[in-house]
Structures are given as C-alpha cells and as structure tokens.
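Why does residue order matter? Because the sequence determines the fold. Keep that principle in mind as you read this record.
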Amino acid sequence: MSRLVLLFASLLLAACAARTPLPEATPTLVATLPLSLQIQRQQGESQEDWLLVIQREGQALRWSLLDPLGIPLARQRLQAGTWHNDGLLPPNPEARELFAALLFALSDDTALPRSYPADTWQRRSDGNRELAPHWRVNYRTALSFSLDKPGLSYRISVLNQEGRN
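Structure:
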C-alpha cells in the first residue's frame, strides 16, 4: 500500500514540475487583440483542427478554444500570472499548456527578457525559440508557426486579419 502511495505522489510531483512557465508580466504581443488563430493538432496519426480566440479584458487575457462546429473545448482567463476557469467547462490541462506556449510564441522579441526568467527560454540563431521544459517554436512568419514538443505538434496560423492594423 505504501508503495502505491509513494508512486502516486511521485507521479503527481512530476506532473506539477513539468509546467510551461507563464510570464512574470503580460508581454507585448506581435498582433493586436482580439486575435483568431487556426490550430492544427497532430499527435501520431491523429489530427484535429481547432479555433482559438484571444481577447483582452481589462488586465486579463481570455482564451477560448473551439472545435470546428464552435463547441467550446476550453475557456481560460490569464490574470496576474494565474489561470482561472472561465465558465462551466471542466479544467483542460493540455489547453493551459498550449495557451502558455502560445503566449510565449506570440510575445514580441523585445518583451521576452522583461517577461520570462532567463533560465526558462532561449532565442536560437535562426530566430526560432525554445521554452522550458520542452517547447520549440519554429516560425514561418510572426503569426504562422509550429509549436512542437516530444510526440505532439501544433501548426498555428492567423485567421483573416484583413482591414486590421
């Protein structure tokens, strides 16, 4: 019995330790909000398409992840460096990790040193970025890129930005 408890505690601790860091302050982003993104999730042979809308609400950022039919998959608010559930959807840990990695990827280059601890990220010589513990951002453009971690990949592209500055 004690071995089972020890195993469970170890797994729980490992899961908590591997979280994607959040910025110490909300960074300047490369696009104005609200922002609509198409997300293609690829894991093994499985592929899913999602829509993500990011909006500013006062000091908070609201993240709404939807399936192609418009059904909410996750809604979170990032306020004062902490995620908060938004609505009645159950917590979605994968979405929170994705949102944290996207916030890093969408942050302006000049905002990174002020927003993230130095030991959590790096800018590679090719202009791409890495974020602890396991994310790699590969840019085609500032709003078209991939987010990769072992066994999982997201392709990100902006939806219709016509008429916006």
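Residues 2-17 form the longest helix (16 residues).
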